[in-house]
Design goal:
The chain contains 12 helices and 8 strands. It is α/β, with parallel strands linked by helices.
Length: 243
Amino acid sequence: MAVIAVYSLKGGVGKTTLSVNLAWCAANISSRRTLLWDLDPQAASTWLMGGDTSARDQAQAIFTKDVEAERLIRPTAFDRIDLIGADTSLRSLDRVFHELDKKKRLAKLVAALDKAYDRLILDCPPGLTETSEQVMRAADLIVVPVIPSPLSTRAFEEVVAHLDAKRGKVPLLPVHAMVDRRRKLHAETLAAQPDWPVIPMASLVEGMAARRAPVGSFAPRSTAAKAFGELWRAIEKRLSKAK
């Protein structure tokens, strides 16, 4: 099982959008048995995938081992995609990790799921926190959405510097997200990093919330769906090279 974390130091850059659509691509383009694990207390991925967002204390219990991870896995309406949902208990997950003082707790929980799935997508909360440190130890690849703007680019550079300082070996895949090529700043930023994958700003992406579904499931021929598909193929290529 390969573990792909969708993470950014900055919020509001499209992590959930990427997580949900990459899970769909893994299941439908590559026919992978896919688990989407929502680690963000906002539970946006959980809601988009039809999961139960009314729970209040189960999501955190996985990490204290009061509840086995397998017991919280739920099927979704989409073939080959299962979900571990988030709830508000994850607001104190950083404190739990600190108190447990188990640097690889998430990595060990992930390893226990290895035989059941081919791909695990982690939808991560923003910030450099105890949770992000756990994610960086567990992931095989970290996908970082970057809006073509100075603040978002700076946030990505801080993540790179942080991993370099820790001599982290987990590879990063930056992705230009929410791109509007008509904007001069966006066009200039894309020109400066032509090798980064690009996810366009599109009304269909915004329409995910109304449909509670990944773009590929309701608009498979759209530009947005094709962009997510191209990104997923780039991820698979990176994973195959890492073997």
